[in-house]
Amino acid sequence: MGSDDRHSSGPASTLSAAPRDRAGGKITNRALNRALLERQLLTRRSDRTALAAVEQLAGMQAQAPQAPYVGLWSRLQNFHPDHLGALMTGREVVRMAMMRSTVHLITAADALSMRPLFQDFLARGLRATGWAPGVTDEDLAKVASVGREFLDERPRTNPQIRAHLAEYWPDHDPTFLTLAVRNLLPCVQVPPRGLWGASGQPTLTTTQAWLGRPEDPEPSPEWLVHRYLAAYGPATVQDMQAWSGLTRLGEVFGRLRPSLRTYSAEDGRELFDVPDGPLPDPDTPVPVRFLPEYDNCLRSHADRARVIPEDARAGLASKNDSPRPTFLVDGHVRGTWKLERSRTRAALVLTPFRSLSKRHAAELTSEAERLLEFVAPTTGDRDVRLTTSD
């Protein structure tokens, strides 16, 4: 169901012989763009499995339940929604609060290894809400214990969790207590939530109950740095902190410095990278690509200039601060898209931020037609419309 551009799972044939010593010298913004696209599987569709792709990306933001499907369609050859659905029902991938305290789709193995690294961050975020100033640490420990026992029995909806906790703490805000369970415990959202075309409220259980395995007792922040750089590097310490929500990562990078490559950005910032991180030729041609809302390709750096040009930032703003689905032209965000759908008709509305060349407009329209076939395969009347930004 992907486009007919040629793809593979290996490195691009246009990878340059960039400096490979530990101090890699200066690197341009365009080179950073191509490195990001290569690692994000956006230079050409990959023949990897959906599971391998989710692993390579170190998870996919999934607040919008259908977003990972579009994200994988843009990255993989012949991707079908059932491929990801089978991974969810087979418990090979899970949906849970992770980076930045947002819901992510992540492999089961990564859930057990990564989630413990975010425990302190999620607990601090709970305190930062200020919803329940009278709740003590001892209270929260009891909430976590009661919540774990309740969720280990079987998956529960948020209303069920609220009602159960209210029996123990009738004087506390039940919404806060439910959030406490979500942040203090490794909770996964079980299907049908997240399945293609399915609906339903979040239903939670613990990773232990769902996966039948405990979390990693010795999670490694150094390992997490390597995973981040493999998916988003070269990058700064601040970039990884923006992706993860974690702080004080400079100490971890410091310990890893002897084993990492370093580069200097155009503005002088120090960038780190894994030793074998691919660096495509900056002039590598890349195809038009569609990204769903919340795609981590656009949300994983403190400085997003490598993929979001200055003149595109205003067009990405929305009234409720909710990110819009976007499309990339020459590897950079050049507009937004939205699906308009009824029972008998589906339209993909494309809004470029500035005029496109005839070639790029034709490529964009062609790729949009393929995307429309993917998201609305049974709709007979399908249409792609190019509009102008307000």
Automatic annotation (TrEMBL):
Domain of life: Bacteria
InterPro entries the record matches: AlkZ-like
Chain residue ranges for the region called Disordered: 1-24
Protein name as catalogued: Winged helix DNA-binding domain-containing protein
